[in-house]
Amino acid sequence: MLTNTPIEDLFTYAQIRQAEHLFKQNIEFAIGATQLEHIPNDNLPQVAFVGRSNVGKSSLINALCNRKSLARTSKTPGRTQQLNFFNLNNQLHIVDLPGYGYAKVSKSDIAAWNKLSTKFMRQSPNLERVFILIDSRHGLKQSDIDIMSVFDEFAVSYQIVATKADKSNQKNIAEIINYNYGKHTALYGEIIVTSSVKKFGVDKLRCIIASLIN
What we know:
- The structure is a single chain.
- By secondary structure, the chain is of the alpha/beta class.
- The protein has a single domain, classed as P-loop containing nucleotide triphosphate hydrolases (Rossmann fold), CATH 3.40.50.300.
- It has helices spanning 7-10, 13-22, 57-64, 107-123, 142-153, 170-178, 202-213, and strands at residues 27-33, 46-51, 83-88, 92-96, 127-135, 158-163, 192-193.
- Strands 1-3-4-2-5-6-7 form a seven-stranded mixed sheet, with helices on both faces.
- The chain is globular.
- The protein starts with 6 loop residues before the first helix and ends with a helix.
- The model is unreliable at 73-79 (pLDDT under 50).
């Protein structure tokens, strides 16, 4: 599994500038969906972010979109309790999905959120890719592997993003990269190593997302 390929080897200068421009456009919170019927039906392409509770989804989305508080962050695991849709200049929906794994909420709530997330990812015709976020300090957990297997079964295209690289070390990041991904048939592309604080890898992620809607 390749990682840290220089962005210039993956995208042209024009593509890099185009992606940079895209994420400087207006972005607004569209809706917090608690049922599939609430999901916007405007046929815009969608990219979704999912990961264990408190993996850094909101922080990465904020960094990606050059905002400080677009997606609300919290130190309390399980804060995202719905499917949060953000409309990027009427060109794209960024979807912040509820975290899986540990969360300080009732088991019935967790089951309902996960059921909604699964239905959305299986049934949305506009979903281009799901980015699975892995906390690089802690590595892959069984819950990550389980969710990857679900995506494989339902042919949901996904890509791995290692978060919080500024707080981790090379050994932990290497373990994520070197895991045997051979059986995961819906996994796409290289692992993207990021830091929301240092903005490392964020430009590459922007380019990848921009390439999905062009």
